[in-house]
Design brief:
Structural class: alpha+beta
Order of helices and strands: EEEEEEHEHHEEEHHHHEEHEE
Strand content: 15-25%
Radius of gyration: 21 Å
Number of strands: 14
Low-confidence stretches: 1-6
Distance between the termini: 43 Å
Largest sheet: 8 strands, mixed
Mean pLDDT: 94
Bound molecules: ligand DP6
Length: 372
C-alpha cells in the first residue's frame, strides 16, 4: 500500500493570482533570470479553455538547455490605454519575429500583472542552444520572462512568499506556452491535477512531491538534432487537433493512468518499467499526430533509424537506455549517469551519422530556474 492513495488535489483558483495592492513603486531598473528547458516523460497533448491541459503531464527539468532573459523597464508618464510598449532582442539583435507571441502572452496575463501598460520594456534574451536546433525555446523563454515579471512584482510587493512567487511564475508561464509552466522548478515537475498527486493543479506546475529514486538524480538526456528546420505543424495546431480526435478520450484516460504507473517506478527505480512507460508515451504522442484530421508526421526517416539502433543496442548490451520525442523529429536519449561513457561512445559511433551536421547536445536533469 502506498501513501499516495487518496490524497487531495490543490484548491488554488485563478483569483489567487490576482495581485494584492502594491506597497512599492518602481521607476526604472532591470531584472534577469535563467530558465531551463524540460522534456516530458508523460506528455501534454490536448488543451482547453485558457491554456488548460486535457491531462496531467510530468517532465524532467533540463540543465544545459536554457534561456537567459533580462527585462529592463522604465515607467511611462501615462498608462497606455491599449497595447504594450516593448521591444525584443535575441542575442543582442532586434527580433521583431517574437513580438506577436509576446503580445498574445501579455494580453493573457494583463489582468494578473496589471502594471504591463505602465512601463516601457526591453526584453533581451539568449538561448544556450542554437536558435535553429529545432529545440523549442518557448518553454524556457516563457518561463524566464514570467520569472522576470514576477521579480518586478516581488519588488512592488516584497512580502510575497517564495511558494507564491514560484506558483505564480509557473501560472504566468503556462499562459505563454503550456509546457513552460514545467520550466520553473525541478528536477521532476507535474502539471495538471491528478487525484494521486498531492497539490497538483491545472493552473501551474509543482515539484513532484513523492520519493524519487537516486538513479534519476543525475539522469542524462542527449538530444540528437535530426532536423533543425521549422516545424511544419505548430504545437498549438496539434493540440487543437485533439478536439474531435477519434482516440482522444482513450488517450487522456491513458495519461491519467500513466501518472499512477510512474509513481512506484520513480520510487523504486525500476528502469525496465520506466523505459516501457517513456517510450510508449513518445510513440503515443506521435500516433495521435498521425491519426488526427488532418494527419501529419513530425518524425523523419532518421528518427526511426535512431529508435531502431537504440533498441538493438539495448538488447545487445542490456544498458537501460531509451528515447523520448517532443513535437518534432529530434530524439532525446535518456540514460542513467553510470552508463554515460558507454552510451556516449554508442552515440558517437552509431547515431551521430543520423544527426543533421552531426549535431547533438549533452544535457542532464536540473533543478530549475535561477535568478541572476
Ligand atoms: C509535445 O507547450 O509547446 O512537447 O501550450 O500550445 O504552447 P502550447 O504547447 P507546448 O506543447 C508541448 C507539447 C509536447 C509535450 C510536452 O511537452 O508535454
Amino acid at each position: 500500500m502506498h501513501l499516495y492513495i487518496g490524497v487531495y488535489i490543490c484548491t488554488m483558483n485563478i483569483n489567487d493570482f490576482l495581485p494584492k495592492a502594491y506597497t512599492h513603486t518602481l521607476i526604472d531598473d532591470s531584472v534577469s533570470y535563467e530558465a531551463p528547458s524540460n522534456i516530458a516523460l508523460i506528455k501534454y497533448w490536448g488543451k482547453h479553455g485558457e491554456q488548460l491541459p486535457k491531462n496531467p503531464s510530468i517532465s524532467f527539468t533540463l540543465s544545459n538547455c536554457k534561456t537567459t532573459t533580462t527585462l529592463s523597464f522604465e515607467a511611462l508618464e501615462e498608462e497606455l490605454d491599449e497595447g504594450y510598449d516593448f521591444e525584443v532582442f535575441l542575442d543582442g539583435e532586434p527580433e521583431p519575429g517574437f513580438e506577436p507571441k509576446i503580445e498574445q502572452f501579455f494580453n493573457r496575463i494583463n489582468k494578473y500583472i496589471p502594471f504591463l501598460r505602465q512601463y516601457r520594456f526591453k526584453i533581451e534574451t539568449s538561448n544556450s542552444f542554437p536558435h535553429s536546433s529545432g529545440i523549442a525555446s518557448s518553454a524556457s523563454g516563457m518561463s524566464a520572462l514570467s520569472l522576470c515579471l514576477m521579480q518586478m512584482e516581488n519588488l512592488m510587493q516584497p512580502n510575497m512568499s517564495i511558494e507564491h512567487f514560484n506558483e505564480k511564475a509557473s501560472f504566468l508561464a503556462r499562459l505563454g506556452s503550456g509546457s513552460a509552466c514545467r520550466s520553473v522548478n525541478g528536477p521532476l515537475v507535474v502539471w495538471g491535477s491528478h487525484e494521486s498527486i498531492e497539490g497538483s493543479s491545472d493552473l501551474y506546475g509543482i515539484n513532484y512531491p513523492y520519493k524519487i529514486n537516486e538513479v534519476f538524480n543525475d539522469y542524462k538526456d542527449t538530444i540528437l538534432l535530426v532536423d533543425k528546420g521549422e516545424k511544419q505543424v505548430s504545437s498549438t495546431v496539434g493540440h487543437n487537433l485533439m478536439n474531435n480526435h477519434p482516440y482522444a478520450v482513450g488517450r487522456f484516460e491513458q495519461a491519467f493512468e500513466q501518472i499512477l504507473n510512474i509513481i512506484p517506478i520513480l520510487e523504486n527505480g525500476n528502469l525496465d518499467a520506466f523505459i516501457h512507460l517513456v517510450e510508449r508515451e513518445a510513440l503515443t504522442l506521435h500516433a495521435m499526430m498521425m491519426t488526427s484530421s488532418p494527419y501529419f508526421i513530425l518524425m523523419k526517416p532518421n528518427t526511426l533509424q535512431i529508435i531502431e539502433k537504440i533498441w538493438n543496442f539495448r538488447r545487445e548490451t542490456e544498458i537501460p537506455v531509451c528515447f523520448t520525442l517532443d513535437a518534432g523529429a529530434n530524439v532525446h536519449v535518456l540514460y542513467p549517469e553510470s552508463h554515460e561513457q558507454r552510451v556516449l561512445d554508442f552515440i558517437k559511433n552509431e547515431l551521430v551519422a543520423y544527426c543533421q551536421n552531426g549535431h547533438y547536445i549533452c544535457d542532464s536533469v536540473g533543478s530549475g530556474a535561477r535568478k541572476l
